[in-house]
Design a protein that fits this description.
By secondary structure, the protein is an all-alpha fold. It has one domain. It has six helices and no strands. Helix 2 packs antiparallel against helix 4. The longest helix is centred in the middle third of the chain and has 36 residues, at 70-105. It is elongated.
Amino acid sequence: MNKVRSLILGSAVFALSTAALRTGPVAAAPDGVNPENRPSAHGRRMAGGFGGAPLISLALSHKSELNLTADQVGNLENIRTNFQSQVTPMFQQVRSIDKEIAGLMQKTPADLIQVKSKIQDAEKLRSELRYLRIEALENGKSVLTQQQRDQLRTLVRAQHEQFRNRRSQPS
């Protein structure tokens, strides 16, 4: 009976850790890696219409429409660079821990105490990543005027609409 229970629990933990590897850490970041294989700060849900550092990149790519000043551009670039330099090593640590968990789950029986410890380590890092995302977001928002934030929110909504329309069209 204990072996069956251990097998079920082990399978569940393995499935969760595999899912965590696929979705990435940035729960904080829920989708974790952008096409350049760099950590991203946005999640699937965008609190208040703003999702973190990718939003800063979006603002920078639309600097003319937003009428950003040279100081604003410089500040946003610094925020983005600082964010990326902070989260990259943490993201790599989370991926490493997730791989360790997967390796621990390959053993029979799995050392559940070690697995639990590794999960806790990964979650501490994920919560820090989430905080850093929120911090970058708030710093980025503080650089923009209210009018620029409103314009950026409109740009984000338009991009979401385009994405939804493309997804709903048959290929």
